[in-house]
Design a protein that fits this description.
The structure holds 2 protein chains of 2 kinds.
Chain A: E1 23-24, E2 33-39, H1 43-51, E3 59-65, E4 71-75, E5 78-82, H2 84-87, E6 90-94
Antiparallel strand pairs in A: 1-6, 2-3, 2-6, 3-4, 4-5
Chain B: E1 5-12, H1 18-26, E2 30-34, E3 41-49, E4 52-58, H2 70-82, E5 86-92, H3 96-109, E6 113-118, H4 120-125, E7 128-130, H5 132-139, E8 143-145, H6 154-166, H7 168-174, H8 181-196, H9 199-202, H10 205-213, H11 217-226, H12 228-249, H13 253-272, E9 273-275, H14 282-291, H15 297-338, H16 344-361, H17 364-379, H18 382-389, H19 391-397, H20 404-410, H21 414-420, H22 427-436, H23 446-456, E10 461-465, E11 468-471, H24 472-497, E12 508-510, H25 519-553, H26 559-575, H27 579-600, H28 602-614, H29 621-629, H30 636-644, H31 652-665, H32 668-680, H33 685-695, H34 698-731
Parallel strand pairs in B: 1-4, 1-5, 5-6, 6-8
Antiparallel strand pairs in B: 2-3, 3-4, 7-9, 10-11
Helix pairs in contact in B: 3-13, 5-13, 8-10, 8-12, 11-12, 15-16, 15-17, 16-25, 17-25, 20-21, 21-33, 22-24, 23-31, 23-32, 24-32, 25-33, 26-27, 27-28, 28-29, 29-30, 32-34, 33-34
Classes of the chains: A alpha+beta, B alpha/beta.
């Protein structure tokens, strides 16, 4: 096998807008390691983030919480800046 | 395959050093064009290596090959349709996992691939130890280390490319694709087999299968075109599988697939990459702690912007003045050469082309320096962060954080501002920004404001802030700029609610590490847009200038009037007064003659014709004519007013006289209205020209011109009428 794929994720029940899983990204502290639970947005946004490394369940680190200024996270070794609109859409859980 | 002529495509993430590598490979043998129908640049070049003639195409930088951006679609379409012999994926080695995502997509496309591990010096400095052999084996793809900005590794890269080109089929068979796991892989393979049954799709069968599973619309369309009989069957099957996957995992299929690719990459990297020292990002972080600091970040940004502008005008200003003087000399030279045989050609050359096109060319030093300043900030990695500093503020207006930079540039000159909107991802954001850009009062209008404020608003010190004298003239100037900004905000909001509706694209960007800009990079990022400005703005301006010149010159003064002026000149010469007096009188006659000619010409008549329409704004025919002239370029307004008032604005003395003439003819209210009109109306021809190019159609440029001119008329009319009423009420 070339490259071991991770274990398949456990099936997750679809969540609706009233039932926001996880906590808001803005609640995380700088330097904290968290994992992505859910992206509140259309499939387009979710996919785009996934392609940039923010796949469901991925672990990432909060590098900076701008305001003003970018919210910076470190995903897969790359630093990503998240704009104002994005931060609110990302739900996380502690690891 | 013809072993001596091959096509090579370069792919890679933005920021991976692709452009630098492309330049290193093709050197001067490159040219830039356009992909048909869109404004994305197509860069091609050639290179000979080992007896092989390579046509090298630099694909747009992308993170992936989905269909979220024009660039991605172009990149994948190029590979699917042009079938390059080899694709080189340029990888930023210091950012490996993310960069390999594109590689997995390229592997899936089924095209012979070579990976260039670029920036390997940075990776090493960061403490990464990458076993290229191991990774190469795991992926089944040759990997070459390169350092683009030092041109290291290029020869080896080209050797490898040539080898793969010569043995494409063998290379393909060696390549590995993402294993999607025990749950998904069987489905992918099954769908692939089904797709492969369609002959036109067989070559890239797996790619199509995976894209179908992702719900990719463009692929669906392509399959319907290429394989109509089986299309529906395939699409139904794909749809069925998608729903199955979603039910199983709770997330859309495309997200699961993306996740799997990263898993594949992660596995490969865990085996091949060791990080020896945790030195990653440290220096960048320290710099960021200052530049992105909550309190100091924004002020620092403003200071940096101010510096860029200051430097531009401080260094560039004198050069512009020099060029301007040179332009005048040239024009004068041509006029004196032609004096005697006169003739329209001389006039066209001197008064039309040299003055008109010259006005644009003369700006080049400013443009160049401005671009240089921006390029330094951009290449160092700062600009990306700046966009985020402003994101929240811009969000409220309905604009993207990245819109700020074009708008800031627009305060210097609108033309490069329009060019700068390329960094915005969606067409919608780009158009919105371009449409409100002219309201950022550009540098060309400043002399007009200065003149009018100077003439019509007598200087009064209002108050002191410490040692700083706050003068009412300065406030008026600032006021005009603010009006522009306020109108821009309103216009943006209105546009967002009507023509350009939609959610603001969320801002996500890779944070580039701070890098020392390289000379090569700066050269490319400065010279290319400058050349661009010259070429494109210049060709259209040439055409318009000729038209305007014609309108200014024809119809010429009738014989009788010409004779009259000639007689006056002769009389002055015959009077034999002191030489200085004679010169002054002759000069005056000349100016009066110019003024008569202007009144008689097409543009003068049009000015008179539209005067009634401009009356509600408080403009007489003189102002209207001058405004018409400023259609080409705003600075022309002063010159035209000069001609109309028969004063010579080039000599300092003349300007003062114009000053007095204006002061005695117009009220401050009218002055305000003139300034407002100049602020809002008709962006200069150069701006229209680049808008046509960047928006891809005349429609938007025409709309921009139209709505701005209409808005100008409305605002000015309202202000004038209201002002007059208030004045009457106060008097009464």
């Amino acid at each position: 096998m070339f490259g071991r794929p991770r274990e398949p994720m456990p099936p997750r029940p679809p969540t609706g807008p009233q039932h926001q899983p996880g906590r808001a990204l803005s609640s995380a502290k700088v330097g904290e390691d968290v994992k992505l639970v859910y992206v509140d947005g259309g499939k387009g946004l979710q996919h785009r983030l996934a392609e940039l490394g923010l796949t469901p369940g991925v672990r990432f680190r909060i590098v900076a919480k701008g305001s003003p200024g970018p919210f910076i996270v470190s995903v897969k070794g790359a630093r990503m800046m998240l704009g104002h609109g994005m931060v609110h859409r990302i739900r996380i859980a502690s690891v | 395959m013809n072993a001596t002529q091959v096509t090579i495509a370069l792919a890679g993430n933005p920021n991976s050093g692709k452009t630098t590598l492309f330049n290193a490979i093709t050197g001067s043998q490159q040219h830039v064009g356009n992909y048909p129908g869109v404004t994305v640049e197509k860069k091609q070049g050639s290179r000979q290596h080992d007896g092989v003639d390579m046509n090298v195409v630099d694909l747009p930088g992308t993170y992936s090959l989905t269909a979220y951006s024009v660039e991605e679609v172009l990149a994948r379409n190029f590979i699917l349709e042009e079938n390059p012999h080899v694709v080189v994926d340029i990888i930023d080695s210091s950012n490996l996992e993310r960069n390999l995502y594109l590689a997995t997509q390229l592997l899936e496309l089924g095209v012979p691939l070579v990976l260039a591990f670029n920036m390997s010096d940075v990776a090493r400095a960061r403490g990464y130890a990458i076993s290229v052999q191991r990774l190469s084996k795991l992926l089944g793809v040759p990997i070459v280390r390169t350092v683009g900005h030092r041109s290291t590794g290029i020869d080896r890269l080209l050797d490898t490319v040539v080898e793969v080109a010569r043995n494409g089929q063998v290379a393909l068979e060696r390549q590995r694709t993402t294993d999607y796991g025990s749950e998904l892989e069987p489905h992918v393979e099954q769908l692939t087999a089904q797709v492969a049954q369609c002959a036109p799709l067989a070559r890239h069968a797996r790619w199509f299968a995976v894209k179908l599973l992702e719900g990719d619309e463009i692929t669906a369309k392509r399959i319907r075109q290429l394989c109509p009989e089986r299309a529906q069957e395939l699409l139904t099957e794909a749809d069925h599988l998608r729903r199955h996957i979603e039910g199983l995992f709770g997330d859309a299929a495309e997200i699961i697939l993306a996740d799997r690719r990263y898993g594949f990459i992660s596995g490969a990297c865990t085996d091949s990459v060791k990080q020896t020292v945790e030195t990653r990002h440290e220096r960048s972080d320290r710099i960021d702690s200052v530049l992105l600091n909550r309190w100091v970040g924004l002020p620092i940004f403003l200071v940096l912007m101010y510096l860029v502008f200051q430097l531009t005008f401080w260094v560039g200003g004198p050069i512009v003045d020099l060029l301007d003087a040179g332009k005048e000399l040239l024009a004068e030279g041509i006029r004196s050469m032609g004096a005697g045989h006169g003739g329209p050609l001389i006039s066209l050359l001197a008064d039309g082309i040299i003055e008109g096109v010259g006005a644009v060319v003369v700006f080049v030093p400013l443009i160049l320096l401005l671009f240089l300043g921006i390029a330094v900030l951009e290449d160092s990695g700062y600009m990306a962060r700046a966009a985020f500093l402003l994101d929240r503020m811009m969000h409220r207006i309905g604009l993207h954080g990245k819109s700020f930079i074009p708008m800031l540039i627009g305060f210097g000159c609108t033309v490069p501002g329009v060019l700068a909107t390329r960094t915005l991802e969606t067409r919608r954001d780009r158009l919105t920004t371009i449409l409100i850009l002219p309201l950022m009062s550009c540098g060309a209008r400043l002399p007009v404001y200065a003149m009018i404020i100077g003439a019509l608003f007598s200087s009064r010190t209002l108050f002191y802030v410490g040692p700083l004298e706050i003068n009412n003239q300065g406030l008026w100037l600032m006021g005009i700029y603010l009006v522009g900004i306020v109108l821009a905000v309103i216009a943006a909001k209105v546009l967002r609610k009507t023509l350009l509706r939609g959610e603001i694209t969320p801002l996500v960007m890779e944070l580039p590490p701070y890098r020392m800009p390289t000379l090569k990079g700066l050269a490319v990022h400065t010279l290319q847009p400058t050349w661009y400005y010259l070429r494109k703005a210049g060709t259209i301006i040439l055409a318009i200038v000729v038209v305007l010149w014609a309108m200014k010159t024809y119809p010429q003064l009738p014989e009788t009037s010409q004779a009259r002026f000639d007689a006056q000149s002769r009389a002055i010469l015959a009077a034999r007064s002191a030489p200085a007096q004679t010169q002054a009188k002759l000069h005056e006659v000349r100016l009066l003659r110019h003024r008569a000619a202007l009144q008689h010409s097409t543009i003068g008549r049009v000015g008179r014709f539209i005067a009634p329409a401009m009356a509600p704004c408080g403009f007489d025919w003189k102002v209207s004519t001058a405004l018409l002239g400023s259609l080409a370029a705003k600075e022309v307004f002063i010159g035209q007013m000069g001609v109309i008032y028969a004063v010579d604005t080039d000599t300092g003395q003349g300007a003062q006289t114009l000053h007095d003439r204006l002061a005695s003819t117009y009220t401050p209210l009218q002055g305000l209205c003139i300034m407002l009109f100049i602020l809002i109306a008709s962006p200069c021809i150069a701006t229209v020209a680049v808008t046509v190019r960047e928006s891809g159609s005349w429609k938007w440029a025409a709309f921009m011109w139209g709505y701005l001119t209409l808005l100008a008329w409305v605002v000015t009319a309202v202000v004038y009428q209201a002002g007059t009423l208030i004045a009457a009420w106060q008097a009464g």
